[in-house]
Amino acid sequence: MSPDVPGTTVRAAGCVLWRRTATGELRLCLVHRPKYDDWSWPKGKLKPGEEALAGALREVAEETGCRAEPGAELSDQRYLADGRPKHVRYWAAEALSCAFSPTDEVDRVLWLAPATARARLTRPDDRPLVDELLAVLRPPRTAG
User: Fold this and answer.
1) Residue 128: left (phi > 0), alpha (psi -120 to 50), or beta?
2) 14-43 per-position pLDDT tens digit
3) CA-CA 20 to 30 A from 41: which of 5, 81, 102, 129?
4) If you ran DSSP here, which 8-state letter would residue 48 be given?
5) Cα–Cα distance between 32 and 8 in angstroms, integer?
6) Where are the domains of the chain?
7) How many CA atoms lie within 13 A of 142 on its CB side?
8) CA angle, corner 97, sides to 93 and 99, nearest 5?
9) Is 133 helix (H, G, I), strand (E, B) or coil?
């Protein structure tokens, strides 16, 4: 199904993009979209026939200028956007190299500590992905 047909579900994908500072502190990347004046994870619509993970990494590169290594798949989200159902799949992804250049679509990026990123995200439904990322980066210790 085409994402441009009214009533069909818009397929999208993105990443909770992360990196560590020189001192080992975790930082998460948020993008500012001037069209909506919001802060969100880098994500976007999939091209026809595009696999979700490939689209997620493409969107990260386009919006942040980062080449990323994908990790665990995180929870997906389903919601209405402009009256149409939207399904977004997310992955954890480590930023390997970045060269951000502002565009009309994304004019700013921020690299924030997890608690600060959670508070800055515009959509409340985006916030649980912070905890999911932390869980996959720091798996629980096992007894023994």
Assistant:
1) alpha
2) 999 999 999 999 999 999 999 999 999 999
3) 5
4) T
5) 27
6) 10-137
7) 1
8) 115
9) helix
Tally Cβ neighbours within 10 Å of residue 112: 19
d(CA 78, CA 119): 21
Q: How far is CA 85 from CA 4, 6, 111, in A?
A: 12, 10, 30
What is the length of the chain? 144
Question: How many Cα neighbours within 13 Å face the side chain of 129?
Answer: 29
Q: Which residue has the tokens 């493409």?
A: 58
- pLDDT > 90 in the chain, percent: 88
Q: pTM score, two decimals?
A: 0.90
d(CA 118, CA 101): 24
C-alpha span between 140 and 61 (Å, rounded): 31
φ, ψ of residue 72 in degrees (nearest 5): -65, 145
Question: Regarding the domain with residue range 10-137, which homologous superfamily does it belong to in the CATH classification?
Answer: Nucleoside Triphosphate Pyrophosphohydrolase (3.90.79.10)
